[in-house]
């Protein structure tokens, strides 16, 4: 009985969190009204086909670990970029995907890594529709690329072993012996070292695989599905506006911080303050759809942080924020310094849809660089045996 109640609580907790993570669209099916009215509010009336071999960018909602997870485990992922057809958006960012771990292979000798094979069977759009799909994703490298990688690593082991062997021969026997033997002592030491290095390469095991939230995965679609095209107005995020205060986000750049981590969002904005409020960079944050708040980064342009924007001021400003996940939805928020209440919330996602394809492509390249290309699990230094 206790196990049954515990299972019910876990299911309730997961389902409630999942539902809260989905922001209903305007005119979603949860609202009252006829199906025809809802359809007219959301869609253009045009239809596009999600073709076979299309690729959808996603990120998982939980950690998938080849050393812990089990075949058959279910999980949810989230679409991180709008999927476009020729006539417009057919799968919006934020759409949930239901997935399952199909296969886990363990790491093997010769440096072969563990692998995770994932499958996806349906999508849940922000307007509540469930779309059956057949999607696949695997962490296994292309066989040619994997072989080349292993060969390169093993050559590294062998060459490294040879170098160490040669140095040890010099250290033990000295330069005089090396010169007297015309270098054969060094060559012999290198050969022995190379054999030792080759042995290490043969017994070396590959690493475990880990996919974490924020890592971008690419899911290949294996079925063709006809989907309606969304109206741009239906996909707009809600904003909080203040009378007389206008903030236009003209550009959104995803960047790496000085340490090389892809975690920075830089906004270029035009602020026109004709309101009765005085703004400051210290009253400004970037807030994501989970309610996490991020203050301006000290590694970006800090001019706005130390400037007050008084009534009547107009200015162009750049400001950077270091965030935990570039794939989330964000709002630029200014707070009233007296009450602590938000004055205005401007959707970064709404501004992002207006950017050029070139800028979006650059940002996607930065986001992809955040993910581990081979999803290799880093060693836990705390638990290593010495």
What's the helix and strand layout?
Elements: H1 2-21, H2 35-42, E1 43-50, E2 55-60, E3 64-65, E4 74-79, E5 83-85, E6 88-91, E7 96-105, E8 115-124, E9 130-138, H3 143-180, H4 184-203, E10 210-211, E11 216-221, E12 225-230, E13 245-256, E14 262-273, E15 279-280, E16 284-288, E17 293-294, E18 308-309, E19 314-322, E20 330-335, E21 342-347, H5 348-352, H6 357-370
Antiparallel strand pairs: 1-12, 2-4, 2-11, 3-10, 4-7, 5-6, 7-8, 8-9, 9-11, 13-14, 14-19, 15-18, 16-17, 16-20, 20-21
Helix pairs in contact: 3-4
Brief summary of the model shown:
This protein is α+β, with helices and mostly antiparallel strands and 386 residues long.
What this model shows, in words?
This protein has 386 residues and is of the alpha+beta class. 27% of the residues lie in helices and 33% in strands. The chain has 6 helices and 21 strands. A 6-stranded antiparallel barrel has the order 2-4-7-8-9-11. Strands 17-16-20-21 form a 4-stranded antiparallel sheet. A 3-stranded antiparallel sheet has the order 13-14-19. A hairpin with a 2-residue loop joins strand 5 and strand 6. Helix 3 (143-180) runs antiparallel to helix 4 (184-203). Mean pLDDT is 77; it is low at 1-23, 28-32, 142-170, 172-206 and 381-386.
């Amino acid at each position: 009985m206790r196990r049954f109640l515990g299972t019910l609580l876990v299911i309730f907790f997961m389902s409630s969190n999942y539902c809260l993570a989905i922001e209903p669209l305007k005119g979603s099916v949860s609202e009252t009204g006829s199906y025809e009215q809802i359809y007219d509010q959301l869609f253009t009336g045009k239809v596009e086909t999600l073709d076979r071999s299309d690729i959808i960018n996603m990120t998982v909602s939980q950690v998938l670990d080849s050393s812990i997870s089990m075949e058959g485990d279910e999980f949810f992922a989230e679409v991180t970029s709008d999927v476009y057809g020729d006539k417009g958006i057919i799968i919006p960012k934020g759409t949930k995907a239901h997935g399952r771990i199909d296969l886990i292979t363990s790491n093997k000798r010769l440096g072969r890594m563990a692998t995770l094979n994932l499958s996806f069977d349906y999508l849940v759009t922000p307007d509540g529709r469930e779309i059956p799909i057949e999607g696949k994703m695997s962490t296994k490298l292309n066989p040619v690329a994997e072989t080349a990688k292993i060969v390169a690593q093993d050559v590294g082991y062998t060459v490294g072993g040879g170098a160490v062997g040669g140095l040890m021969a010099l250290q033990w026997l000295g330069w005089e012996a090396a010169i007297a033997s015309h270098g054969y002592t060094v060559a012999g030491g290198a050969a022995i070292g190379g054999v030792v290095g080759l042995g290490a390469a043969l017994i070396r095991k590959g690493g475990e695989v880990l996919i974490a939230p924020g890592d971008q995965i690419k899911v290949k679609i294996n079925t063709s599905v006809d989907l309606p095209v969304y109206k741009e107005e239906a996909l707009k995020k809600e904003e909080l506006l203040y009378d007389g205060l206008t903030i236009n986000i003209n550009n959104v750049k995803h960047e790496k911080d000085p340490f090389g981590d892809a975690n920075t969002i830089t906004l270029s904005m035009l602020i026109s303050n004709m309101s009765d409020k005085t703004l400051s960079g210290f009253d400004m944050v970037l807030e994501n759809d989970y309610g996490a708040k991020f203050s301006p980064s000290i590694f970006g342009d800090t001019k706005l942080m130390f400037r007050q924007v008084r009534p009547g001021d107009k200015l162009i400003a750049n400001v950077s924020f270091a965030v935990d996940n570039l794939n989330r939805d964000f709002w630029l928020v200014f707070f009233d310094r007296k009450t602590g209440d938000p004055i205005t919330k401007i959707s970064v996602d709404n501004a992002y849809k207006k950017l050029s394809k070139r800028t979006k492509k650059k940002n996607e390249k930065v986001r992809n660089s955040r993910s581990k290309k081979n999803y290799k699990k880093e060693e836990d230094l705390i638990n290593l045996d010495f």
